[in-house]
Amino acid sequence: MSASAAAHRDLPRIYHKVGSLRAERRWALWTSYASLVVAAVIFLAPPFYMLITSLKTNAEMADLSGNPWLIREVTFEHYAAILGNELFLGFFWNSIKVTVLVVAITMAISVLAAFALSRMRFWGSQALATGVFLTYLVPDTLLFIPLYQIVGGLGLLNSTWGLLLVYPTLTVPFCTWIMIGYFASIPKELDEAALIDGATWTQMLLKIFVPVALPGIIAATIFAFTVSWAAFVYPTAFITTPDEMPLTIGVVSQLVRGDTFAWGQIMAGALLAALPPVVVYAFLMDYYIAGLTAGATKG
Fold first, then answer.
1. pTM of the model
2. Does the pLDDT at position 1 exceed 50?
3. Domain 78-294 has CATH 1.10.3720.10
């Protein structure tokens, strides 16, 4: 009877504790949702305003009496002007050409370097791997002056081929770091078994590590694509002729004349330039997250 009575006395205390946990969990959920809503508004407001501006007529943009967040008359003339201009189509082609080639160069270098640094242990491999990542921390605003002298000495100024030389300095270090973490998370028994079976290091890389590390490779590829497509400092410093400009600087340089801004076409061009990365992230976001997080654990 005493044990039963003690149990009954403890029931209110247990119910109170469970209720407190539920209240804390509910409060944490509401706080998380509120934070997400605020963050979404902050990050989505600029592109939403760009979309609104690109759909306005020049007269409506010049009329400051109206609400800037509302559209009185929808027009697609700015998009038609952008897509119907051969110069801007050339900007698109330059961006596509540079991005595809830079991604290919970056992945070829990063996969080989990451495999060597993570699996082919040699003296100084850990220090070299750390140094590769530290180079990524150097801002491009400090590097473009010496790189300008190097590119100029090679005769590659005002050429997209010069961008193929300098863009990998932004993409290779970080992509190599991603791949090092991913390769290091693969069990050592795989390469040891392959070595026992007589496989070469090249066969191990192509037949074992590349298929297993595909999410990490996709994550590195997406990063290289984003950086190459959205780069602004390097093309601004190295490219001055419109025929060789990528889209990021072509839109700004050709639509700004002194203090005159073609805001409608600028916003339309900026949204079109942002569309490919948005599409890539929309379809490959799961692979990108998996590739970034998989290297955080080993074994």
1. 0.79
2. no
3. yes
